[in-house]
Amino acid sequence: MIDLGISKLALIGAVALIVIGPEKLPRVARTVGALLGKAQRYVADVKAEVSRSMELEELKKMKDSMTEAARDVENSVQSTASDFEKSWSEATSGLDGPSTSYDTGSSMGSLETPPVYKHPKKNWRLKQKAMPQWFKARTGVRTRTQSGAARVARFRPRSSSTPR
């Protein structure tokens, strides 16, 4: 850029004062200042755009290298998985088929199927707390426990002499 010292600025100011005149000089100075400010902002914007484009290209290169590495890992995992499946099928090839027997230790060597897990059936009546109170009252489910003596006393026929 142009090297402007104090002596050069003073010379430019003196020439501008003579050529433009003292009446128009402040307005021209404001205009020149505004133009210089716009020029500086434009240069800063261009620099920022160039740096952004450089960062974007670096990110694109990094993305390409990462996708390539991911593809390599995927291919190696697939090849390892196929090798494992191949070795698994070779190892289990003799185990497949109807020749599988479960020997229970009997002398006859009878073929029995292994026991199958059976889920226990749940009795929903055991879960009395899950029933609403109105349903218990309607169906006659006891909600309070009583001793045997209290039950006998409750349902004993009344005698005419003792009020309840």
From TrEMBL:
<keyword id="KW-0812">Transmembrane</keyword>
<keyword id="KW-1133">Transmembrane helix</keyword>
<feature type="compositionally biased region" description="Polar residues">
    <location>
        <begin position="98"/>
        <end position="110"/>
    </location>
</feature>
<keyword id="KW-0811">Translocation</keyword>
<keyword id="KW-0472">Membrane</keyword>
<comment type="subunit">
    <text>The Tat system comprises two distinct complexes: a TatABC complex, containing multiple copies of TatA, TatB and TatC subunits, and a separate TatA complex, containing only TatA subunits. Substrates initially bind to the TatABC complex, which probably triggers association of the separate TatA complex to form the active translocon.</text>
</comment>
<dbReference type="InterPro" id="IPR018448">
    <property type="entry name" value="TatB"/>
</dbReference>
<comment type="function">
    <text>Part of the twin-arginine translocation (Tat) system that transports large folded proteins containing a characteristic twin-arginine motif in their signal peptide across membranes. Together with TatC, TatB is part of a receptor directly interacting with Tat signal peptides. TatB may form an oligomeric binding site that transiently accommodates folded Tat precursor proteins before their translocation.</text>
</comment>
<comment type="similarity">
    <text>Belongs to the TatB family.</text>
</comment>
<keyword id="KW-0813">Transport</keyword>
<keyword id="KW-0653">Protein transport</keyword>
<keyword id="KW-1003">Cell membrane</keyword>
<keyword id="KW-0997">Cell inner membrane</keyword>
<dbReference type="InterPro" id="IPR003369">
    <property type="entry name" value="TatA/B/E"/>
</dbReference>
<dbReference type="Pfam" id="PF02416">
    <property type="entry name" value="TatA_B_E"/>
</dbReference>
<feature type="region of interest" description="Disordered">
    <location>
        <begin position="137"/>
        <end position="164"/>
    </location>
</feature>
<protein>
    <recommendedName>
        <fullName>Sec-independent protein translocase protein TatB</fullName>
    </recommendedName>
</protein>
<feature type="region of interest" description="Disordered">
    <location>
        <begin position="67"/>
        <end position="123"/>
    </location>
</feature>
